[in-house]
Amino acid sequence: MSSDGMTAWSWAYMLAVWGAIILLNVYCFYRIFTKKRSRPK
Amino acid sequence: MAKLVKDGWATRFGLIMAMAGNAVGLGNFLRFPGQAMPYGGAFMIPYFLALVLLGVPLMWMEWTIGRHGGGFGHGTAPGMFHRLWRHPISKYLGIFGVLLPAMVGVYYVYIESWALGYAWQTLTGTYWGQESYDEMKSLFGTYTGTKGANLVSFSSQAYTFFLITFVINIVVFARGISRGIEVVAKYCMPLLFVLGTILAVRVITLPPMEDRTIGQGLAQIWRVTDWGVLAKPNVWIAATGQIFFTLSVGLGMVHTYASYLKKKEDITLSSLAAGGTNEFVEVILGGTIAIPAAVLFFGVVQARDIVNTDGTFAIGFFALPCIFQQMPGGQFFGTLWFVLLFLAGLTSSMAMFTPLLVFIEDELRVDRRIGVILIGFGVFLMMQPVILFNHYNVLDEIDYWMGTFGLVLFVAIESVLFAWIFGMKKGWEEMHLGADLRVPRIFYYIMKFVTPTFAVGLVVWFAYDGLIDKLTMTGVKPEAVPYLWVGRVMILMMAAFIIWGVWYAWQTHPRFFDEVEREEETTP
């Protein structure tokens, strides 16, 4: 790999951020879709 | 007792997709990677700090202001601000929430139409054979009219696609919230995810070319080579600007969308889901397509040159079309790319004229159909100088005053109004009415102290950093000055109309909205 490519830290950094964003989405949509009734009458 | 019967969101998923669609725009795929690339991986530090300290709190504030105002029959910022602060000036501070999105829409629809035009050109292979960067740059200049030397400059093809895009936008927003915007968002946003994912996977799996790899492209955004850039104010300003831009805060559209929520309908979790969706599209998809592909085909040095010299749009409209011509299945993937950009643009632009329409309906009591016709006609006229005089940078002039400075100013006004004048205690309680997510207490203090202070600081920074030069048109070519004034006069005309509208509304029916109870309070 070229010297100006991704390092192990860069991959870890990127994947950690991606993971955090995906977790946030999973958390939010899980809460929303598993709520029996989200809209009041 | 007066009671307003309003359109509304049919489903919670539709609301979240519409809010996310409002945030997801061309900037997610073009502006974000272009902002990040000059600073490398260090950019993501101020980016995420700005997201947590400014972006997410502002989202919660705007959703809260919108739902609160909507409960009293106000669908736009003038009335909403009047409800936050019973001072004669407050409603006039809210004019930005109508003015900014409408004026941004005046040029945004034209930019969005470029994506549709390029999707068609890619599908039909119109530019196939023009494989160099300079050829594609020249083609873009001719297409958009920026290269012209005559009094007016535009291409008939660009104008045709502008007309198609304009009609699509008007049809969608004329159909209203539940039958127009929500329906389009519910179908277009999932489609956008699919297209974005296909393109991201295609880019990541591209084989190395000579000594260039996709890893080098990703490194432009994720590898920290110089922590020292964090000491430069510019990186913080760039990151903050990107957060405002990407979440579409400070424009007034979120307020209007949120005004259709019921009093005890959740906003904390829904807004977080919409923001999270936007971040997924921006950071994961947007950060993986344009820059890595450009670096693989052009190399690090040239890709950086393109961004620094021609800006971020150059990657999307000059560089990637060259790349599509060289890669297997390029016509297919190229069409997907421009359709993706068009959908991202459409889901944002269809929100931009909604505050103006709602303002005309709610405050001026004009029938919806007449409002649509008035806006369609007026906005269409205003778009003509942007298109015809694009080579004199009319578009950039409106963008600076409305989409950049105006946005920051509006953010400062609304955050001070919400946190300091309405009061954070009341604001916090209002925000948590019917909440599905209890927001950590630390955000109370962030929203009270950090967000408004930072927002006011940004206005001061902008005033210090080039505002006077911009105002006096320092460095502008003399022949361009009259055309830039055309842009300014359009802004002033629109502002004058909205100011008159606010004055007229409060003169003719000052007590009407005071009599309107929240819908739920009158519902048994």
Total count of strands of chain B: 0
Q: Which two protein chains have the largest interface (Cβ within 8 Å of the partner's Cβ), and how many residues from each?
A: A-B, 26 and 37 residues
Q: How far is the N terminus from the C terminus of chain A?
A: 59 Å
CATH level-two architecture of chain B: Orthogonal Bundle
User: How large is the count of helical segments of chain B?
Assistant: 24
The overall pLDDT of chain A, averaged over residues, is 85
Based on secondary structure, the structural category of chain A is mainly alpha
Q: Could you state the oligomeric state of the chains shown?
A: heterodimer
N-to-C CA distance of chain B: 14 Å
C-alpha Rg of chain B, in Å? Answer: 22 Å
Question: How helical, in percent, are the residues of chain B?
Answer: over 70%
Biggest sheet features of chain B: none
Overview of the structural elements:
- The complex is a heterodimer of chains A (41) and B (524).
- By secondary structure, chain A is an all-alpha fold.
- The longest helix of chain A is centred in the middle third of the chain and has 27 residues.
- The radius of gyration of chain A is 18 Å and the shape is rod-shaped.
- The N and C termini of chain A lie far apart (59 Å).
- With 524 residues, chain B is an all-alpha fold.
- Chain B has one domain: Hydantoin permease (Orthogonal Bundle), CATH 1.10.4160.
- Chain B is built from 24 helices and no strands.
- The C terminus of chain B is likely disordered.
What is this structure's SSE topology?
The complex is a heterodimer of chains A (41) and B (524).
Chain A: H1 8-34
Chain B: H1 12-23, H2 26-29, H3 31-36, H4 44-71, H5 77-84, H6 90-93, H7 96-124, H8 133-144, H9 156-174, H10 176-204, H11 214-222, H12 233-247, H13 253-258, H14 268-298, H15 300-310, H16 312-326, H17 330-352, H18 354-362, H19 368-388, H20 394-431, H21 442-471, H22 481-508, H23 512-515, H24 519-522
Helix pairs in contact in B: 1-10, 1-14, 1-17, 4-5, 4-12, 4-14, 4-20, 4-21, 7-9, 7-17, 7-18, 7-19, 7-20, 7-22, 8-16, 9-10, 9-17, 9-19, 10-14, 10-17, 11-14, 14-15, 14-16, 15-16, 16-17, 18-19, 20-21, 20-22
